[in-house]
Design a protein that fits this description.
By secondary structure, the protein is an alpha+beta fold. It contains three helices and seven strands; from the N terminus they run βααββββββα.
Length: about 140
């Protein structure tokens, strides 16, 4: 299993950041590894809402379906994503910090079946993917200020 955890601070309020990031269709705007993202079903976003993403990982396009399994505005949202080869659990927390929000992204990614043998390689690649996503989020938030 691969794990990635990182935080960033933004001057934006927790409620705004929670609303933006709990709608996982926004990942296409800030995660360079996501080439398509859409919300399935009707608003509002809540526990049980699903999202379909198309991500590029290790040079391959991978369709993933994510479902919100924890929805606690404006403090935390957790997504469980799955494809034919991986399962992902992504938890994002939002804490007030010096006039803004500290966003912490904590994710686990596990390969399925015989692919589990590649876990050591997955860990290295997942850290790079996570770092690019965090940099993309930071850049997107700075541009919108």
């Amino acid at each position: 299993m691969a794990h990635y955890k990182a935080s960033l601070d933004t001057p934006r309020p927790p409620e705004e950041m929670f609303a933006y990031l709990s709608d996982f269709s926004t990942t296409e705007e800030w995660d360079p590894g996501v080439i398509e993202a859409e919300r399935l079903g009707d608003p509002p976003v809540r526990e049980g809402t699903e999202f379909r993403l198309l991500a590029v990982f290790l040079g391959r396009k991978t369709p993933l379906t994510y479902r919100i399994v924890e929805y606690d505005p404006p403090s935390a949202v957790t997504f469980r994503g799955e494809s034919s080869t991986v399962v992902s659990l992504d938890r994002i927390t939002f804490e007030p910090s010096s006039g803004g929000t500290r966003i912490t992204y904590d994710a686990d990614l596990a390969l399925k079946g015989a692919l589990k043998l590649a876990d050591p390689l997955l860990r290295v690649a997942f850290k790079r993917v996570g770092a690019r996503a965090l940099a993309g989020l930071r850049s997107t938030l700075e541009e919108g200020q």
